[in-house]
Amino acid sequence: MNILVLNCGSSSIKFQFINSDKKEVLAKGIVERIGEESSLFSFISEKIEKRKQKIIVENHTQGIKLISDNLMDSRCGVIQSKDDIDAVGHRLVHGGEEFSGSVRITGRVIDKMRECIKLAPLHNPHNIKGVEASQKILPGVPQCGVFDTAFHQTMPKKAFLYALPLEYYTKHKIRRYGFHGTSHYYVAKEAARYVGKSLDELRIVTCHLGNGASITAIDKGKSVDTSMGFTPLEGLVMGTRCGDLDPAIPLYMIETLGMTRQEVNDVLNKKSGMLGLSEISNDMRVIEEEIEKKNQKASDALEIYVYRLKKYIGAYYAVMDGIDIIVFTGGIGENMPILREMVCNDLTSLGILFDKEKNYIKEDGILDFSDEDSKVKLLKIPTNEELMIAMETEAILKKSEIQNPKQFQSLNVQNYKKNTTKNFRK
Ligand code: ADP
User: Does residue 189 lie in a domain region?
Assistant: First the structure.
């Protein structure tokens, strides 16, 4: 199947056109600065690598038209007509409690996504715009959605409930949702494949360390706890987000420091984390360079980052009564051996022993840097959320076709929930 994977943000659309049978990317790129005076477009296929500046893309519909026209273009394209696009797979951020698996998008699904807007006001409206734009530009092409939160819907109450008065959950749906689910699930599956075991037999901790960062405990293939919470602000130290914090601090900032709600929000989301602590950068490459120059603030920031991560590994060891595999992924997890070394150092009592030399081997694929005597396998695994979305999309379409070839169009949200949850639980 040829699947167009879309990640629609407020002013950008990232895309990959993937052949799911061959697991091959046929074309990819990004439309940026949508709605601004001039937009940017990049398109890479086997035939061409092109970048266009100063084009006008007013909205998501024009953005998706630009992508689809280029896919079919005789010079740079990879297909003849729209008929060669078998499905569109959307990355969707927040599915609330409605979606515990990937879904085929119907009118009812869009209605349910609208209900989740209040949980993700920065993301869901743009995701919906992307879905509606795709329906306009590619009518008749099946659209599927893969939610960042869905994989974590298996968490038990003891992990997802905050100790607030219960009605904040029952009436207002305030609870831990977790994010990066597609990535955590993908690398966990890859880890199981690598060690030649079924996910059902394994206790895996996956560390997704990019600009945003989260860590998940996966017991027998199910997410049982994760560090991001009601929003992606909770948990680990991130590029610019603070992660875990005494909840009284924002109140203190407002009441005693006289900050506005918006200022507090900006500090917690955009000025904290590695950027806030180092006072230099949110980019770990810059932090590493500064540490080499003996910059103390950069060293302290990295130490705090590592310390928080270690605490979570210890916590998830307790949650699952042991760990069989730890996976490092995301821009930082994949490319920063010194960080992996610092995290795995001094964890011998948990059976974690790493091989220092192997950890520094440059390897594009999976890197196993465990010591021979380590009880816990230590793996670096490149994440691939787009491929995962393509595979989920293919699985939904194949399954629905087999189960219900005629009534395919009329499947409702509840049916999807039942049908597709299993996709995540394999
Ligand atoms: P996103 O969360 O935006 O998807 P990525 O997973 O691509 O981000 O991670 C981006 C981050 O990865 C960068 O901000 C940088 O801190 C880090 N990074 C990328 N390459 C390296 C590298 N070679 N060494 C250390 N850190 C890196």
Answer: no
Query: What is the CATH number for 68?
Result: 3.30.420.40
User: How many angstroms separate the alpha carbon of residue 376 from the centre of ligand 1?
Assistant: 25
Full domain range(s) for residue 369: 196-380
Whole-model pTM: value is 0.91
- Asked, for residue 114, whether it belongs to a domain, the answer is yes
Question: How many degrees, rounded to 5, is the angle at CA 230 between CA 180 and CA 164?
Answer: 150
Same domain for 202 and 143, yes or no, is no
148 carries an active-site annotation = yes
State whether 303 and 369 are in the same domain.
Answer: yes
CA atoms of 49 and 18, how far apart (whole Å):
17
Q: Quote the CA–CA distance of 261 and 252 in Å, as a whole number.
A: 11
Average pLDDT over residues 13-25: 96
pLDDT at residue 413, as a whole number: 35
Expressed in angstroms and rounded, the spacing between residue 238 Cα and the centre of ligand 1 is 11
Ligand 1 atom at minimal distance to the Cα of residue 209 = 6
Beta-sheet strand order (sheet of 367-368): 222-226, 213-219, 203-209, 325-329, 377-380, 367-368
Annotated catalytic residue, options 148, 219, 225, 324 = 148
CA dist 72 and 132 (Å) reads 21
Does residue 88 lie in a domain region?
A: yes
Distance 364 CA to ligand 1 centre (A): 15
- Report yes or no: 40 and 53 within 8 Å, Cβ to Cβ: yes
Q: Is residue 211 lining ligand 1, measured as CB closer than 6 Å?
A: yes
Q: Domain check: are 134 and 214 in the same one? A: no
Beta bridge partners of 367: 380
Q: Nearest C-alpha to atom 20 of ligand 1 is from which residue?
A: 331
- Predicted pLDDT at 409: 42
Give the chain's domain count: 2
Task: Encode pLDDT of 373-411 as tens digits.
Answer: 999 999 999 999 999 999 999 999 998 776 665 444 433
What does the pLDDT look like over 206-245, one tens digit per residue? Answer: 999 999 999 999 999 999 999 999 999 999 999 999 999 9
46 lies in a domain? yes
Nearest to 379 by CA among 189, 214, 225: 189
393 and 333 fall within a common domain: no
